[in-house]
Every structure is written in C-alpha cells, then in structure tokens.
Write a structure and sequence with these properties.
The protein is mainly alpha-helical. It has a domain of 62 residues. Helix 1 runs antiparallel to helix 2. It is elongated and about 65 Å long.
Length: 98
C-alpha cells in the first residue's frame, strides 16, 4: 500500500462521515461537500492502486490480492469425496446427517 492509497482511503472515510452527518442533520452543503470528498478519496486510492500495479516489485500480483493466499494448504480430494459419499448415503437411508 502506498501513500496515495492511504491518503485516498482517509479522504474517502472522512467524506463518508461528513456526508452522513449532512444527511442526518439536513445540511445539504455538508452532504455535498462530503460526497465530493469521498469521490476525491476514491480517485486518489485508485491512482495509488494503478501506480502500485505498475511497480516491478508487484509484478504478477493484482491490486486486489490480499495476504490470505500466502499459505497454500493442499486439499486431499479423496477425503472430501469420501465425506460427500457418506453424507449422500445417510441422506438416502433417511438417517440424520451430523
């Protein structure tokens, strides 16, 4: 995450708060100003993402990738298929599936 992404997110959140406050209080000026600030923040965040995507350090990585996929645990399909078969058998026989 780079400076533009962080600043853009901060502006987006601040704008949302200001817009929502304007909605609750009936202050149209505050509502419009907050919405504009939100748009400004979203644009700056998008610009930061585009800059980040062009960075050679991030080659092969999408801007939406998270740290979730850092650890890859292989799934044993045979065990999964066995469990599915057992559940199907229980359903066919009318037994309660646990």
């Amino acid at each position: 995450m780079n400076k533009d992404q962080v600043e853009g997110k901060v502006k987006d959140v601040a704008g949302r708060i200001e817009r929502q406050t304007g909605e609750w209080t009936g202050d149209k000026t505050k509502e419009v100003h907050g919405a504009l600030k939100q748009v400004e923040g979203k644009l700056q965040n998008a610009w930061g993402s585009a800059k980040n995507a062009g960075n050679p350090k991030n080659a092969g990585r999408r801007a939406t990738d998270k740290r979730v996929n850092r650890i890859h645990v292989p799934v044993d399909d045979s065990v999964e298929a066995e469990v599915e078969r057992e559940i199907e058998e229980e359903l066919r026989s009318g037994r309660k599936v646990s």
